Fold this sequence. Notes:
Layout: H1 3-18, H2 22-37
Helix pairs in contact: 1-2
Amino acid sequence: xxxxxxxxxxxxxxxxxxxxxxxxxxxxxxxxxxxxxxxxxxxxxxxxxxxxxxxxxxxxxxxxxxxxxxxxxxxxxxxxxxxxxxxx
Length: 88
């Protein structure tokens, strides 16, 4: 580990946090973590998808919910199941 590089990153992170630049401070924190552990941090990008052209607007980048395979929609209940009103 290069102690001078770690100290410089810590100071830069403190300056960014004091300036309320939290995105830069978070990126520097991740770099510090990678330097200390000796391995780069890998992000899990499996759930991210690109927005499709023509589907621009609020909520259009969210995936549609699809039922699991083999799922069957239940039948609607019969409105005449009791044959009488619950009110007395």
